Amino acid sequence: MRLLLFDIDGTLLTCGPQVRPWFADALVAVYGTAGAIDGYDFAGRTDPEIVQDLVGDPCPERLGRMRRRYLDALDRHLDAAAMRLMPGVRPLLDELVTRDDVVVALLTGNWERGARIKLARLGLEPYFRLGAFAEDGPARRDLPPVALSRACQHTGREFGAADALVIGDSVHDVACARAHRVPVLAVATSHTPAARLAAAGADRVISDLTAISADELVSFGVE
To answer: Is the pLDDT of residue 147 over 70?
Structure first.
């Protein structure tokens, strides 16, 4: 059985520029500054890691207040009309969830509530019953072992690194997979060029998810 671990932003969907101002507002409200957020690259980083990079304050109480303010704004204002589903996502998920040889899950730097808000706006939330989220570790490379453990709990089957596949659009997705010897498929659907994803160590780079079938995902890397 194969465990497919999908990133969200840039891989499954994009929210466009609408989210950054709400994140900045929450930072200013709690910390008094948003730091250098205008030039900051969110891609592949966890939400707490972004906060740490921008304001340098790991205080759990402040982080909790910032998270609540940001997620409340996301829930109230996120506009599906300004979002975009990446090519090939829905047909691929529709096929994958009918199979009994695959577990579809998330591996994302979003806090779980934020992840599910984003997915729900485009009707993707029901595809993903489990995953690893920003609450599960301060850095993205902390997340693969959590995802493997949860998949085991969910299915009653053991999952090793070779049984999983990380699917993401950033060099941080590649690095977190490589840190745990998990195969990684990179999709060049966001701002990171295909050549950079390949240089980072992706096992394969594709233009978007129309370029791979469900069968290929399940057998990815199997000799």
So the answer is: yes
- 78 contacts 118 by C-beta, under 8 angstroms: yes
Query: What's the pLDDT tens digit per position in 30-72?
Result: 999 999 999 999 999 999 999 999 999 778 999 999 999 999 9
Give the Cα separation of 18 and 193 in Å (integer).
Answer: 23
Answer for the pair 86, 209: CB distance below 8 angstroms, yes or no: yes
Decide if 108 contacts 131 (C-beta within 8 A).
yes
Q: What does the radius of gyration of the chain's CA atoms come to, in whole angstroms?
A: 17
Task: Determine the length of the chain.
Answer: 223
The token pair that represents 215 in the structure block: 């069968």
* pTM (two decimals): 0.96
Burial of 100 (0-12, 13-18, 19+ CB in 10 A): exposed
- Residue labelled with tokens 């304050």: 57
**Closest listed residue to residue 92, CA positions, set 154, 163, 4, 173:** 4
**Sign (positive or negative) of CA dihedral 82, 87, 91, 97:** negative
Residue 80 is given by DSSP the state: G
Closest CA relative to residue 156, chosen from 219, 221, 103, 220: 103
